[in-house]
Write a structure and sequence with these properties.
About 35% of the residues lie in helices and about 15% in strands. The chain is built from 10 helices and 13 strands. The longest helix has 24 residues.
């Protein structure tokens, strides 16, 4: 080993979902929205003055922050924006999780949490989900240096009821509790109003799922002004210009088009509930997802086999080769036509396999 190699920080990186290229494929592996962004986003894009790109963007992202503050009925000093919710959560790990006590997050959850904890050398523990993949609130009543979990959880899609979320926050007043609501628009009640009562709660959202803007990388957090101020201090100590100008302008335009947002979310929910019925007919079982995906296992065919068969057909779903998850496929909700193509292939494949 070379001398300098001993000083390199070594981590096992997060593995993102595959991004296949081409026209004749069905992409149901990264929980993207199958519908385009709001019409106001396209209009704002056409009207954008490219001459503005030669100057630095507003480091405070004021236009976007104010649009989000108005939308949620909070002060601008209660909103923090970043380059996707991943950026916001990474900043939160750096800012809030600095105790010698372990941060708590579920053993089956968004796998980036473990990556950030190891990258930033944050001690952590992973309380196990129960046998039905549910979060056990009582596991978060012990001494800790912070708590983070998605609601609905990923990759299971299961929702923790708001009263149980509040109990975790209330019983950990000396710790920062981060509720990652990347999928909350597809089912359940947000914890965001609880930020008015609990100064230790930070709620994180993204534009990548329900807002159809994964390509622009927009995320944000809502919390007590003291929490937001601490995040801003870390951001400005790291990179003042994290949010690019198009994201600021187009993100604000997306927030203003509530009717379109609601209509696309409703279409995805309707398709999801229909998809659950179709999967059941094909012999799949799954937790009752409240997200824009379904976490499904077949009664007799291994998930790895189905994953490869689908991939050969250019239908992409997510497969996690790890304990407890390796017999499940995470299937994003696409358009009705995409889901019909998926079920058509699965029906044929499973039927031929029985012969």
């Amino acid at each position: 080993m070379k001398g300098w190699e001993a000083n390199i920080r070594k981590v096992v990186p997060y593995v993102p979902g595959e991004q296949p290229q081409g026209d004749r494929l069905i992409k149901l592996n990264t929980n993207e929205n199958p519908y385009p962004p709001a019409p106001g986003v396209e209009k704002a894009l056409r009207e954008m003055d490219p001459d503005r790109f030669r100057k630095y963007p507003d480091p405070a992202s004021a236009e976007l922050v104010e649009a989000l503050a108005d939308y949620h009925g909070v002060g601008a000093d209660q909103v923090f924006v970043g380059v996707g919710s991943d950026d916001v959560i990474a900043m939160s790990f750096l800012t809030f999780f600095n105790s010698e006590k372990p941060v708590l997050f579920p053993d089956v959850t968004y796998s980036f949490y473990k990556v950030w904890a190891e990258l930033f050398q944050v001690p952590y523990e992973t309380p196990a989900l129960d046998g039905a993949f549910g979060i056990c609130p009582e596991d978060y009543r012990k001494e800790n240096g912070g708590i983070i979990f998605p609601n609905p959880n990923a990759p299971t899609g299961l929702l923790l009821p708001l009263d149980q979320v509040e109990a975790i926050v209330r019983e950990n007043r000396d710790s920062i509790v981060i509720v990652d609501e990347a999928y909350i628009d597809f089912g359940g009640v947000s914890a965001l109003p609880l930020t008015a009562r609990y100064d230790n709660l930070l709620v994180v959202r993204t534009f990548s799922k329900s807002r159809s803007m994964a390509g622009l990388r927009i995320g944000y957090a809502v919390g007590d002004p003291a929490l937001i101020g601490a995040l801003q201090d870390v951001k400005y100590s790291y990179n003042s210009y994290t949010m690019n100008l198009p994201s600021q302008i187009l993100g604000a335009a997306a927030v203003r088009d509530e009717a379109y947002f609601r209509s696309t979310v409703e279409r995805i929910i309707e398709t999801r509930e229909w998809a659950k019925e179709e999967l059941g007919k094909l012999g799949f079982s799954f937790p009752d997802s409240m997200a824009n995906f379904i976490f499904a296992a077949h009664e007799s065919v291994p998930a790895a086999e189905l994953y490869e068969a689908l991939r050969a057909e250019k239908i992409y779903v997510r497969y996690f080769k790890q304990p407890r998850l390796d017999n499940y496929l995470r299937i994003s909700i696409g358009t009705r036509e995409e889901m019909e193509a998926l079920f058509g292939f699965l029906g044929r494949y499973l039927g031929e396999r029985k012969r």
